[in-house]
Amino acid sequence: MKPVYNTKSGLPPWRPSLYDGETTCQLAYEALAAGGSYAKVAVAIGVCKETVFGWIKKYPEFSDAVKIGLAVAESQWEEPEFHPDMNPVRYRMNMQNRFGWRDKIDSEITGKDGGPIQFKSAEEMSDDELASIIAAGDQSKPKE
């Protein structure tokens, strides 16, 4: 089987960089804006995904093109017409994996009346206070 080389240059994968500025940015943007993934970007340019990630870090204009392409893709995926037959579970997983969607859970612990939590060390407690804490713990244990 003949190895698959970049269709644009015909060069093997260990060749010098194919990054050429505006054209590369445009290819990345178009691949993502069409709803594609980083793999689609890599295939469109003819490099591996690791190279795409390296270019994102190295070239600010490439990073911007990728971010804008992802924003366009996300806005398309948010429209039900873009994925009419996809079940809700698969849609949610797609959005989490592709665009980093997460459930936001806010939790807050407060003390009495919403104030700060008051701490008291065992050294500061009386024997009666310690005994009541121990008794409360004993009552919460299951009976054998």
The biggest sheet, with number of strands, parallel, antiparallel or mixed sense and barrel status, is:
none
Give the helix/strand class: mainly alpha
Question: How many angstroms does the end-to-end distance come to?
Answer: 69 Å
The gyration radius over C-alpha positions equals: 28 Å
Individual helix count: 6
Helix content: 40-55%
Low-confidence stretches: none
Overall average pLDDT: 84
Shape call: elongated
Please write the string of helix (H) and strand (E) elements. HHHHHH
Question: Which helices and strands appear, and what pairs or packs with what?
Answer:
Elements: H1 22-33, H2 38-45, H3 49-58, H4 60-77, H5 88-99, H6 127-140
Highlighted features:
144 residues; mainly alpha
What does this structure look like?
By secondary structure, this protein is mainly alpha-helical. The protein has a domain at 22-99. It is built from 6 helices and no strands. Helix 1 (22-33) crosses helix 2 (38-45). The radius of gyration is 28 Å and the shape is elongated. It starts with 21 loop residues before the first helix and ends with a helix.
Short summary of the structure?
The chain has 144 residues and is mostly helical. 51% of the residues lie in helices and 0% in strands. The chain has helices at residues 22-33, 38-45, 49-58, 60-77, 88-99, 127-140.
